[in-house]
Design goal:
The chain has helices spanning 15-21, 24-27, 31-47, 53-72, 84-96, 109-145, 165-190, 209-215, 225-230, 233-259, 287-310, 324-348, 353-361, 367-376, 381-398, 407-413, 421-424, 427-432, 442-456; strands at residues 150-155, 158-164, 192-193, 220-221, 267-268, 350-351. By secondary structure, it is mainly α. The strands form 3 sheets. Strands 1-2 form a two-stranded antiparallel sheet. A two-stranded parallel ribbon has the order 3-4. A two-stranded antiparallel sheet has the order 5-6. Bound molecules: arginine.
């Protein structure tokens, strides 16, 4: 069948070229946005007298019929069409005849596709926002259920200082709160309507872009018609936000994988979020966390791909831009899948506080507190640091930990040491002394949890 755009050419194209050119396989996702966008356009054409009221109503009813039929399954998307825009217009024209041919007045597929994509993606941002909140709720729940659980905090993956497990979890909560902020910010710029920019230069008809924008829930209109049809910043911004979000989930996944190993055994994942091995009967593998970590690369790839596609494009629309959708849809779908598995995986894991505590006891992670003890007795920090290091070396050589080294041995290093040193280096005391804002003391972590809960409310 000749294309709707047959005219200058016969509209008869080679079938391989057709397949190559067509985007309906992936842009069919936007059928709803395409149809509601067209309904607003038909309403505007009628309100402005560009078509008659009656024609406008016929178009709107016809479009509603297509939407209903697609949703009920009475109508199937014809994958031999070039794209979703052409499909809808073709069905409409088949159903309404000449009136259907009036819909595309004062519009182009260039502003139409930009409109559909903005509408589709803002809905996806809303869904992703809810899914991120589910992860945040799981984090808060685990933090509350594990109040007071002490684990080693790490730098360089070497035991560093004792912290509360809930403090560590709240670090991830802060990252995800920033992700929510970024998504909301991205949505603001996305939520401006490009419809009415037409092919690139605007139109000679007396249209009302704000009428359409308002009907479709936009906050305003894009200000330059050339920009309106060439801009894909909103896709790139969203993929940047999603890349950061995935980076956070990936770091969290990495820790979950480590913590679930026999070497750590800080947590046990629920069976529902693990897999076995086809050969090794003892295995319980953290595949979900690994896949989240793995899929992070794919979301970065989507971002890099589209950045590269756009970098050399002259204004305004170029067909290269059709490549935007597979990239941004893949990023969105991947992130949603990851979030959907991450929240329950997190909610159902159980912790092993005794193992965390044991790990915290065995790495001299209270050595900073030992140095601080001497400082509080009047010694300059650098000297206290050196002596504490020498004491750690002695303990390692002779099989002690700081808690078991006798006072007489301490006093051989400095007479400032007294019996009270043992209570100062007690792990719980080490944690509880860190009352600085954002620190690891129970009170400080409670404040962090309250902060996150307030943001979620
Ligand atoms: N399928 C096209 C896309 O995704 C729609 C816009 C087509 N515009 C055009 N001038 N050929 O970009």
């Amino acid at each position: 069948m000749p294309k709707l755009w047959a005219g200058r050419t016969s509209g008869v194209t080679d079938s391989v070229a057709d397949d190559f050119n067509s985007s309906i396989r992936f842009d069919c996702k936007m059928y709803k946005q395409d149809i509601t966008g067209s309904m607003a356009h038909a309403a505007m054409l009628g309100a402005k007298g560009i078509i008659s009221r009656q024609e406008s109503e016929q178009l709107i009813d016809g479009l509603q019929g297509i939407l209903d039929d697609l949703e009920s399954g009475a109508l199937e998307i014809d994958l031999s069409c070039e794209d979703i825009h052409m499909f809808v217009e073709q069905v409409l024209t088949a159903r309404l005849g000449d009136v259907g041919r009036k819909l595309h007045t004062a519009r182009s597929r260039n502003d139409q596709v930009a409109l559909d994509l903005r509408m589709y993606l803002r809905g996806q941002i809303d869904e992703i926002t809810e899914l991120v909140k589910d992860v945040l709720k799981a984090i808060v729940d685990q933090a509350e259920e594990n109040r007071g659980v002490i684990m080693p905090g790490y730098t360089h993956l070497q035991r560093a200082q004792p912290i509360l497990f809930s403090h560590h979890l709240m670090a991830y909560a802060m990252m995800l709160l920033r992700d929510l902020d970024r998504l909301a910010d991205c949505r603001k710029r996305m939520n401006l309507s490009p419809i009415g920019c037409c092919a690139l230069a605007g139109t000679t008809y007396d249209t009302d872009r704000r009428f359409e924008a308002e009907r479709l829930g936009f906050d305003g209109v894009v200000q330059n018609s050339i920009d309106g049809v060439s801009d894909r910043d909103f896709c790139l911004e969203l993929m940047s936000c999603l890349s950061l979000l995935m980076m956070h989930l990936s770091r969290f996944s990495e820790e979950i994988i480590l913590w679930a190993s026999w070497e750590f055994k800080f947590i046990e994942l629920s069976d529902a979020y693990t897999t076995g091995s086809s050969i090794m009967p003892q295995k319980k593998n953290p595949d979900m966390a690994e896949l989240v970590r793995g899929k992070t690369g794919r979301v970065y790839g989507d971002l890099m791909g589209l950045l590269t596609t756009l970098k050399g494009l002259p204004l305004a629309y170029n067909k290269d831009m059709q490549e935007d959708k597979e990239a941004v849809f893949d990023a969105v779908d991947t992130v949603k899948m990851c979030l959907k598995v991450f929240a329950p995986m997190l909610a159902t894991l159980s912790t092993k506080p005794e193992n965390m505590k044991k790990a915290a006891q065995g790495g001299f992670i209270n050595a900073t507190d030992l140095a601080d003890y001497l400082v509080k007795k009047g010694m300059p920090f650098r000297s206290a640091y050196k002596i504490s290091g020498q004491i750690v070396a002695k303990c390692i050589a002779e099989g002690y930990v700081l808690e078991t080294l006798p006072l007489s041995e301490y006093q051989a290093f400095s007479l400032l040491f007294g019996e009270d040193l043992y209570s100062e280096i007690d792990l719980t005391a080490c944690v509880e002394k860190r009352i600085s804002e954002g620190g690891t003391s129970a009170a400080s972590v409670e404040a962090q949890i309250a902060y996150v809960k307030e943001k979620l409310a």
